[in-house]
What we know:
Layout: E1 6-9, E2 16-19, H1 21-29, H2 40-50, E3 59-62, E4 69-72, H3 85-93, H4 102-113
Antiparallel strand pairs: 1-2, 3-4
Amino acid sequence: MEFEDKMLSCRDCNKQFVFSAGEQEFFSAKGLVNEPKRCPNCRLLMRIQRNGEDVNRVAEVSCAECGVPTRVPFQPKGYRPVYCAYCFQTKKREPQPEQATADEEHVADDLITGVVSS
Length: 118
């Protein structure tokens, strides 16, 4: 069965969000029949509240890829890009370059072995 992206409306904030083909495939594989009622931002807030955590730790930022305002469950430090849920999933599916520089390999080796270099 082929899935196509759908536009849904969030029941909390009433904003439109994309229920992507990949998400639909995931829902189908898990046996879930109902579509999501909340956008990714509102789902994040509900999850944090349900876990009894502080909602104030959630940061609202603009997606580095598409510029859409999104919420993340951490305070960004500013040295790495932050993506909305849709762009994050898209980036995750893209093949990553397999070539690493010697410095990156050295840092990776240090992390694995626990060596701290100065």
